[in-house]
Design a protein that fits this description.
Elements lengths: L2 E2 H17 L1 H8 L7 H15 L8 H15 L4 H15 L5 E2 L1 H19 L9 H17 L4 H18 L23 H16 L9 H7 L1
Antiparallel strand pairs: 1-2
Helix pairs in contact: 1-3, 1-9, 2-3, 2-9, 3-4, 4-5, 5-6, 6-7, 7-8, 7-9, 8-9, 9-10
Length: 225
């Protein structure tokens, strides 16, 4: 089953709505162990994406994502700009020239984005960053592509479940990357705002594409309310 460029654009537009709606909340979560600017920094870039997305030249998926990577890199401050910008750029490389992508190609886009984020930020699974949500989602997509799954709604729900679960499974961890790592043990028993953001985005995607799903982690439930 192919995923159209229109649906990818819809997912990006939904993401912008999620990020802007939670600008202050994601910053509040970041303030528990970080410097409290995550939500504001991310929203600054996604406000531009929300405004420019309908008008930018986007002949194919890769071109669209490359434009978005440039917007994020230019307008998102702190560590989020390079991390999220790299993710968009690496996904763009895999989807260059395509106006629709197969599930295997989507898995490749996410995988390339994850590899780029790991290389750029130096974080790994278990460091209590957004990668603790993205890496298991990547593995789920790889498995779905290998198995030839065709129910995209069920797959989206499964990915959202995985990311949501990562909020609680990493809560007790001590952060090893980002500003939260500088406070040591104080970062334990706090949710990582990047993981909450990924889980919230995927849950909002479910709603946008007509897939029923209820958030489990309290932070995600509050973010999608």
């Amino acid at each position: 089953m192919a995923i159209s460029q229109a649906n990818i654009e819809k997912a990006i537009d939904t993401t912008a709505d999620t990020v802007v709606r939670n600008e202050l909340y994601f910053s509040d979560l970041d303030g528990l162990a970080g410097d409290g600017d995550f939500g504001i920094s991310l929203a600054t870039g996604f406000k531009v994406i929300k405004k420019d997305l309908p008008e930018i030249d986007k002949p194919d998926v890769g071109a669209m994502l490359l434009k978005l990577s440039m917007i994020v890199s230019k307008h998102v401050g702190g560590s989020s700009g390079p991390i999220w910008g790299t993710g968009f750029m690496k996904a763009a490389l895999v989807s260059k020239g395509k106006t629709e992508v197969s599930l295997a190609e989507l898995a490749g886009m996410v995988g390339n984005a994850v590899d780029g984020i790991m290389a750029r930020g130096g974080a790994q699974l278990g460091d209590k960053t957004l990668l603790d949500a993205l890496i298991p989602v990547r593995e789920r997509l790889d498995a779905a592509a290998a198995a030839g799954e065709t129910d995209m709604g069920a797959l989206l729900k499964s990915c959202a479940d995985i990311a949501d679960g990562a909020v609680d499974s990493t809560r007790s961890l001590v952060a090893h990357r980002g500003r939260a790592s500088q406070v040591g043990a104080r970062s334990a028993d706090t949710p990582d705002p990047g993981i909450v953001a990924i889980a919230t985005i995927l849950t909002d995607w479910c709603k946008a594409f007509g897939v029923e799903r209820a958030a489990v982690a309290p932070e995600v439930a509050k973010a999608v309310a």
